[in-house]
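Dear colleague,

As promised, here are the two records you asked about, laid out in our usual form so they can be pasted straight into your sheet.

NAME FIELD: protein one
SEQUENCE, THEN STRUCTURE:
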Amino acid sequence: MPAQPANTIERVAAVSAWTIQAPRLLYPQADPSQAPLALGAGWLVVAEAFAPDDPLAEGAERLLHAMLHALQLHRHPRVGLCSVSAGAEPGAQAADAAMAEHVAAFAPAVVLVMGRSAMQAALGRREPLGKLRGETLALAGVPVVVTFDARFLLRNAASKSVAWADLCRARALAGRSSANAPVP
C-alpha cells in the first residue's frame, strides 16, 4: 500500500477526534406556512456543545438563539443543530464523514458552522477560522458559511458585526440555493 502524504494522515487524525451528534430540530413548533421564503428549505447549524460547567454556557446559548431569532429562523420548522464535542466515541466513524451523512439526510439549504471546533470537526480543516470566513465552501453539495461561535462573541464583542455579516451571507445563500424549493 502506498504511503499517504503526511497532511492526509494529520487531517484524518484531526477529524476523528470529534463526536458530532445527529441534528435536533430547534423550532419544530414553527408553522411551515409562516417560514420566510428567503430562509430556504432548512438550515443546519453546527456548533460546539455547551458544557454545563462552562461559566459562559448560559450566555452563549442565549446569544446563539438571539442570533438565530434575528435571522427569523425561529419561524422555520427545519432548523437543525448538530452539537460537536471533543473526543470520538468508541467505534464512531470519522467526524467529517458523519457530518456529510447528516447534511445529506437533513438536506438543508445552507450549513452554518459556528466556531473553530465545529469547523475542525465538520470540515476537517485546521486553518484559522478567520481564513475560512467568506470562503466558498460546501459540504455534501450544500453551501457552508463559517463564523465565530457565541462563546467567542461573548468574549469579543467587537467581532459581533463580522459574525452578523456572516449570518447575512448564509441567509442570502439559503435563499438562492432553494429559491424554488417548498418548505416541508
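NAME FIELD: protein two
SEQUENCE, THEN STRUCTURE:
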Amino acid sequence: MPTPAAPTGHDLLGTLVGLLEQEYAALRQADAAAVVSIAERKRALTGTLASLGLPAVGDASLPAPTAALARRCHDLNRRNGELLHLQQSMLTRAMRVLSGNDAGPTVYGARGQTQATPGGRHIASV
C-alpha cells in the first residue's frame, strides 16, 4: 500500500488560510478557548512550513499560486493581529477604569509621545 504524499507548502498555506479565518471569527466572538486552540494548531503548522524551507514571498522561484496564498496568509495574520491589539487595548482601558487607575484621555506631545494631560506652551495670548 503506497504511503500518502506529504503535504506541499501550497497545501499547508491553504490550511493556514483556513486557520487564520477561524481565528478571526473566534476573535470577533471573544472565544478565548478557540483562540488558544487555533494558536496551538497555527504554531505546529508554521513549524512544519518553516521546515520545508520555502523561498520568501518575493522570490521569483516561488510559484505564483503559492506566493498568492503566502500573501493572503500575511494579510490575514496582520488583520487578526490588529483586531487582537484593539481588543487588548480596550481590555487594558476597562481594567484601568474598573481599578480606579484611569488616567483619563491620552494626548500626543510635540514629538509624538503620549501623555495623560495636555501640556505645552501657548503660542499667543489674546
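A couple of things worth noting about protein two: The chain has three helices and two strands. The mean pLDDT is 85.

Best,
R.
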